[in-house]
Amino acid sequence: MKFSLKSSVKWSILIFCVTYILSSMFTVASTAMLEGVAWGVGMLIVLALVLVGIVFDMLGLAAASANETPFHAMASERVPGSKQAIYIVRNADKFSNFCNDVIGDIAGVISGAASALVVLKLVDSMEAGHTIWKTVTSVLFTGLVSATTVGGKAMGKSFAIHYATDIVLAVGKVFHFLERRFGIRLFNGRRKKSNGKRGHKRAPKSN
Q: Is 198 left (phi over 0), alpha (psi -120 to 50) or beta?
């Protein structure tokens, strides 16, 4: 696939707008949820955000690592989701950019801000005068969130590399379900035309 500067610029602008909108929406939603709940429920929300980041990071790497060939064999046998999987692999740069850089990074930033709010709730629930314990609790919880994020992404990357075909096919089946059930088509499925036609070159005329 040829590199197109115009297409790349358009995609970058689109991703900028989508990221800004999604980030604003998720930030407002997570802040609203955390303000009205106890610190224990807040921890679960933070862990859910971390899990979202891990899953999408794995999906993006799987798309970049997958090979298109097995999906053609599946498509010939009419395996559900195989055609969508082919489109995912052919658009791996955009798909991985959306999963890793948009959803993954947004989840990482919001989980960090959410963990800070949870720590404040947890510290406020403690008795006054125990400054050392408050500091220790804050450090432990922040470290736990960071370690869970990094460790989870490390495991997700391992799964993505070794089971790229299975993961991409699973995502393709989700897209297939959305197309069949709700008419939501995320890929147009059109192939780029080649510049020249094969097999139509005229032979030189003989005298």
A: beta
4, two tokens: 């197109």
At position 53, the amino acid (one-letter code) is G
Q: Map out the domains of the chain as residue ranges.
A: 7-182
pLDDT tens-digit series, residues 81-110 = 999 999 999 999 889 999 998 998 899 888
pLDDT in tens, 154-182: 999 999 999 999 999 999 999 999 999 88
What is the distance between the alpha carbons of residues 120 and 180, in angstroms, rounded to a whole number?
Answer: 46
Listed in sequence order, the residues at least 6 apart from 172 whose beta carbon sits closer than 8 Å to its beta carbon are 71, 81, 82, 83, 84, 85, 86, 88
pTM, to two decimals: 0.78
Going 125 to 126 to 127 to 128, the CA torsion angle's sign is: negative
Helix runs in 36-163, H state only: 39-65, 69-76, 82-90, 92-96, 105-124, 131-162
